[in-house]
Amino acid sequence: MTKQVMTSNKAVAEAVKLAKPQVVPVYPITPQTTISEYLAQYVADGDLDAEYIRVESEHSAISATLGASEAGVRVFTATSSQGLMLMHEILFAAAGMRAPIVMADANRAISAPLNIWNDQQDSIAQRDAGWIHLYVENAQEAHDTIIQAYKIAENKDVLLPVMVCLDGFILTHTVEPVELLEAGAVDEFLPAYEPTHAFLDPEKPMSLGTLADPEYYTEARYAMQVAMDNAIPVIKEVGKEFGEKFGREYGLVDAYKCEDAEIILVAMGSMCSTIRVVVDELRENGEKVGLLRIRSYRPFPYEEINEIVKNADKLAVLDKNVTFGIGGALFTDICAKCDKDTYGFILGLGGRDIIPDYIKECVELTKSGEKKVTWIGLKEDE
Amino acid sequence: MVSIGCGISEPGSTRKNKTGSWRTFKPVLDKEKCVDCDNCILFCPDGCIGKEHNIDYDYCKGCGICKVECPVKAIEMVREE
Questions:
Q1: Could you tell me which of B8, B7, B13 has the C-alpha nearest to residue A96?
Q2: A206 neighbourhood in chain B, CB within 8 Å
Q3: Does this complex have an ipTM over 0.85?
Q4: Do B17 and A204 touch (CB under 8 A)?
């Protein structure tokens, strides 16, 4: 199979074309814009047989996506940053109505101050909406994950929307070699969507987005928790099946040299590629460090995480987001679920580069263990 | 048991919601005092009082309008246990 050189946004759009959604409502926003442009081009050229809706805002984009999903077709949308903020209300509705939407989020910082560059605050701010959150590391994984996301979302035991999070600019606008999946094989792996609980049929009318009084609401929300728990084995199975068919296996997490590691660095997204290089470098100097990349942030696979970190002395969690007043979101989750000596680091906000020296600094600060949460790369007052 | 995503495929499902659970005070009618004026039937905003002045506690929310409108004070509001 040949590889092509492309950005992650192109890799996402190519995967969407293979997944064949029938309705694609998208509103452009940096750094997601080229996804919406590629998809518009595919539809205009007749390469993707979909209704491309040019909506007037992200609130409308996700609303139209939800409406189409509830009408019983496969859908796709994509956004970023402030656009995702504007979707906030409908994200909860989409999860509650159990719509198997797949959305790409090009991770970007949140205003104020206004910033178009990468961090992961936007998707982290939506973590309680009830969506499955998958963070990818590179263009190939972005391409492969979109296809898996549909299979996970549409699984009868799950039926939850999936957000595929890819780092803005670092992935969305940087070219890498990508092996595009073959259309026929994707059709075998991902058959056409057959709606079960929400579809438009005059012969079988139904009310959707209904009211649930105190008698029913708790059970409806609990059903979402059960679905999220079910997603843990489903994400694993789909990643394994994908590996068997296409040769690249994926899981809930991705452990690198963790078996004998004394310090394990825990992180999400593209910075894991840099951390992997630093891990190799530090190991050449005899330091036993490892990397645990979290691919599935929601559901949070804490049992698997605990199994991997069980022999480590310390954990260093690197967050491209802040939960003000406590630390990074991944750090607080790890602290809540892992009984380990854990240190949190906030770095890479608003597009500041995460250089190898920053990661080495995180390792040193974890060894010294003086401070629970440290902001890395802060500039001194002049 | 709720359906997936709370979708509803049959009409009239609101009848299953026993909204009487919202009630704090329960109207109790003393039929000995009742003079059959039917004010309570006319004024009940939820249609919870039948022709024989039987109160439907599945849906009565305990607003107490019947008690106020009763000319002979035959209805007493009793706190739910």
A1: B7
A2: 7-9
A3: no
A4: no
